[in-house]
Amino acid sequence: MADNEADFDDSSSASTGSVDQAEFVGRSRFVLAALLALAAPFLVDAAPIAGLKTLHGDELILTPLLFSIIFAKYGLMAMWLAWGGSRAIWRMIILAISWFFTCMLTPGPYTDVPQLFLAFYLQLIVIAAAIAVPRLFGVRWVADVKWSAGVSVAQNKPYQFSIYDLLIWTTTVAILAELIRWVGMPQGVGMEGIFFMSLGGAMLAFIVLTAMWAQLAEMAVGSSMGGRTILTFILALIMAVVVVSLSRAPGKAAAFLFMLILATTGWLLAACYVLRCYGHRLVRRKSSSPQATIT
């Protein structure tokens, strides 16, 4: 009897230690992601913005390529806001600071910075809400953590889709909308500009979702990552054709849109592949799964 109690205590302490280690790793990942988000304006945005200032939009190949880097980073910010493992309020604050730094780097008068920040930060939250839709259908983000001792733990991403986070999201959107109504939109952005911002946000959300599906989702029987990647590029190409047709863009503008959409898709696929290499997955919650408790 005493031996059974001792074995039970040992197993309980071992499981508690594994949970504590997983929580520590989860917090470490959040700190690392937060630092990367805060440094992204200087590590990612600064060089493309400087290049765009030099090119003045005259280079047909480099201009959409540089824009695509900023667009892809913007999509990754929305993805982290939608699927991050910390409380939404902390991710919103960190991304707000990061995006404000990016707005400070953009060319133009500094009087436009508040309008630029509010408009695109609100769009970022709306895009993140669209990217988070799969969570309504039981999809969860899981990180597989492999310890040096040989123990493999499927790390939970806590705080995903809680009532508290939904309240934070809706309150933030309401405050931003009211601030935009008070300070106005960026100079030169009218109803047509709002339409194209909405269209661009919808396109980016679709690209992020397809890239996540191609690289991070569970593989069904008979499917392959290469096939999903090719299908993602085909869907991006179809979307580019539809957008160019609806906008009736001239030849140079049409080529710019094609290259921008395809390059953004490529950057996001590469980023999601890196996440996959580090053990990140999107899984559908199954009550009968014995491997991990997925929140």
Describe, in plain words, how this protein is organized in 3D:
There is one protein chain. This protein is mainly alpha-helical and 295 residues long. It is built from 8 helices and 3 strands. The protein has a 3-stranded antiparallel beta sheet with strand order 2-1-3. β1 and β2 (152-155) form a beta hairpin. α2 crosses α8. It is globular. The protein starts with a helix and ends in an 11-residue tail after the last strand. Mean pLDDT is 76; it is low at 4-15, 145-159 and 287-295.
How are the elements arranged and paired?
Blueprint: H1 2-55, H2 62-83, H3 88-105, H4 113-131, E1 139-146, E2 152-155, H5 163-183, H6 191-216, H7 225-247, H8 251-277, E3 280-284
Antiparallel strand pairs: 1-2, 1-3
Order of helices and strands: HHHHEEHHHHE
**Overall average pLDDT:** 76
Radius of gyration: 22 Å
- The number of strands is 3
**Oligomeric form of this entry?**
single chain
| Structural class category | mainly alpha
Q: Give start-end ranges of low-pLDDT stretches.
A: 4-15, 145-159, 287-295
Question: What kind of sheet is the major sheet?
Answer: 3 strands, antiparallel
- Terminal Cα span: 36 Å
Q: What gross morphology would you assign?
A: globular
Percent helix range: over 70%
The order of strands across the largest sheet is: 2-1-3
Number of helices: 8
| Strand composition percent | 5-15%
